[in-house]
Structures are given as structure tokens and as C-alpha cells.
Amino acid sequence: MNFAQWINPRFAIPILALSGSFFAAYYPVWIKLIKDWGVDDNYSHGYFIPFIAAYMVWQQKDNLARVAKKGSGWGLALVVLGLAQYALAWAGSEYFLQGTSMMVVLFGVAMFLWGWGATKLLWVPIAYLALMVPLPAILWNKIAFPMKLFASAVAADTIQALGYTVLREGNILTLPNTVLEVADACSGLRSLTSLLALSTAVAYLASMEAWKKWLLFLSAAPIAVVGNVLRLIATAVLARHYGAAVAEGFLHTFSGWLVFMLGLAMLAGVYTLLRPSSRPSRTPQSNEQ
What we know:
Blueprint: H1 3-7, H2 9-25, H3 27-39, H4 49-59, H5 61-66, H6 73-91, H7 95-114, H8 116-128, H9 137-161, E1 167-169, E2 172-174, E3 179-181, H10 189-205, H11 210-218, H12 220-242, H13 249-274
Antiparallel strand pairs: 1-2, 2-3
């Protein structure tokens, strides 16, 4: 789709009207999301998601210009379904379903206006927006709790293997001179949500085979777990020598940033291993004299 088509009133006016209606309908949801991103450290990456999604769409502009555009009535059904989800979630004050209803509506709009061919090119950028919507607390805790127990168990076993005395009771690590509690913030789920958002974008934009894209995307989970376990081990060892102060305040926050930077480095390492080699292939030299 070229620039002339975008400024053509027959095309631009309906798109502007549709976009205005969409944002007017979801204005309260956007306000709530922006407030959540500002106070919830687990979703502070939400500010970047819409812009990354927009860039994903921009990357597909040439393919979108070539694909056949034949609207489908099924798209209108999806729009109605998404708006019904929004209305019911609004009535029940369920913010997660309110936010994710936007993705359903956007899928429907794409299919209704341009058909299945264009929707297939847009489904990842649209679905990517779901990563900016905070999970319900009950679901977050269901995921965070087992991750917290797993990280505590692995950290305790490793600390003992290093020759330190530690007693684990659930998510409590008892050292000879202090007691450490593995809180929800130390479950690794916070790092996982941010790394998933990043690995999804990198995998989508990377020029590599589909299976490598999936491997890069899925690598965020073990990277987040490994980074968090290393953080727990380091905190416990330092607390054994310097007291519980190393697990509190600034040092605790700083260690979280270090773990996230380590996760970025590991993700970059996975990408480096998976990306195609840029070295030109050697052409056999002729034996002719």
C-alpha cells in the first residue's frame, strides 16, 4: 500500500473514522493500562509493546501491498464477539478480558476489511499486544508460586553443593546467620514476562528459519529461570558472609537489574548461535594453469 493510497480520501476517511471509534471505545482501558505499567514493575515493558507491534506491521508493508485483499464477513462476527467480551468484562470489572478484547476486535477488523491473506500477515503483531495486558492476580500467583518453589529448591541444592549449610522449607532458605524468603518478585516470572516480550519481537523480525524463530522465542523461559536461580544463589552466599542486608533495599533491586542484563546477554547469545552465517561461501578454485 503506497502513500498515495493512504492520503486518498476514499481510503483515509473510513480508516480514520474506524481508528477514532476504536480508541474512543477503548480509551478507559488504555488509561488503566498506562496506570498499571507505571506502578506494576512486572509490566513496565508495556509502554514499548504498542510501538514494537506498529513496527512489526511496518515491516510487513510490502507483503501487505502484494497480498490479495478480499474482505470476509467472518471478520464482522469477530468484531461483534470482541465487543461482547469487552461489554461483559466491563460489567464484571475484569480488566484482563477488557484488554485482550482489543486483540479480538483488531483481528476482526483486519479480516473484515482485507481478508484472511492480510490477517495472516498481521496476526503476530496483533497477538503481541496481549503481552502488554497484566495477567489477573489469581493467574499470576498460580504461575509464580511453583516457579518460586522450583527456584528455591534448585538454589538450596546448589548452595549445599558449594559447601554451605542451608535448610529449605518451601520458599524459605535458612542460613546459619540469617533467613531468606524467596518472595513473588524473586520467582523469575517478572524476568520471564519481559524476556518473552523481547524474544517474541526479535524472533519475529529475525531472518531465520521458522524452527529457529520458535527456539529463540521459547529460550526466554529457561533463561529467566536460570538467571533467577543464579540471583538466589549469589544472594544466599553473600548473605552468609555479609548478613541479610545484601538481600534488602538497593542491593536487592540492583541484583534484579543485573539478572535482567544477564538474561539479555544470554538471549543475545542464543540469537547469535541461531542466526545464519554471514560469511560468503568459498568457490572452489580452478586447477587450470
